Amino acid sequence: MKSVLKKKINTLPETLRPLLWGLAWDKINIIDDKADIILNVVNEGNIDQWKWLIATYGKDEIRHVLQTRLRTEFHPESRALAELVFSIPSFHNAR
């Protein structure tokens, strides 16, 4: 996967900037910051941002990242949608 993503290192859509306000925009790396990008797009993103997320990381990688996060890190409606779209059986309640 890294070889595919290396080509996309500096290709974050400008529309993601408001979702990633907690990260230094000019230093974001889609490989190193993948977990933060995925979490923020799932929680706050629109359909086009979700499409970009899936095209960039793939459903399997997104599922893997999401399953490592706590259920409280998601808005309830975002968590429910992510469970359906990415076939996630459950989220962790504690680390």
User: Strand content of the residues, in percent?
Assistant: under 5%
What are the segments in which pLDDT stays under 50 over at least 5 consecutive residues?
A: none
Structural class given helices, strands, pairing?
mainly alpha
Radius of gyration: 13 Å
Order of helices and strands: HHHHH
For the terminal residues, how far apart are their CA atoms? Answer: 27 Å
| Helical coverage, percent range | 40-55%
Question: How many beta-strand runs?
Answer: 0
Mean pLDDT level:
88
Number of contiguous helices: 5
Name the shape in a single word: globular
Tell me the domain tally.
Answer: 1
Q: What descriptive keywords fit this protein?
A:
mainly alpha
